[in-house]
Design a protein that fits this description.
The protein is α+β, with helices and mostly antiparallel strands. 14% of the residues lie in helices and 29% in strands. A five-stranded mixed beta sheet has the order 3-4-2-1-5, with helices on one face. A hairpin with a 2-residue loop joins strand 3 and strand 4. The longest helix has 12 residues. It is globular, with a radius of gyration of 12 Å. 23% of the residues are buried.
């Protein structure tokens, strides 16, 4: 039993309004689920960012990205305040 459960996909947000998606493992065809997110690499992980200027439709874009990623994994957590 693991003491730490790290999901395949983590969706969160920053204090300044960025919505981000972190892939903790490579997911096949994840780039197809971008939904307008900008792609970055950080410490070997792929991170997708949605700038705060698009906050009015952040929920819709994050929902589209989640829906696309659910085709490959159900290990997903959303703790973003911008997608509520």
């Amino acid at each position: 039993m693991s003491l730490l459960d790290i999901p395949d996909v983590f969706i969160g947000s920053t204090d300044d309004g960025y919505t981000f998606v972190v892939l903790n493992r490579p997911i096949r065809d994840a780039d197809r689920a971008q939904a307008g997110f900008l792609t970055r690499e950080h410490l070997g992980r792929r991170i997708y960012l949605l700038p705060p200027g698009t906050a009015q439709n952040a929920q819709e874009r994050a929902g589209s990205a989640m829906y696309g990623l659910l085709a490959y994994t159900r290990d997903l957590i959303d703790l973003s305040w911008t997608t509520r």
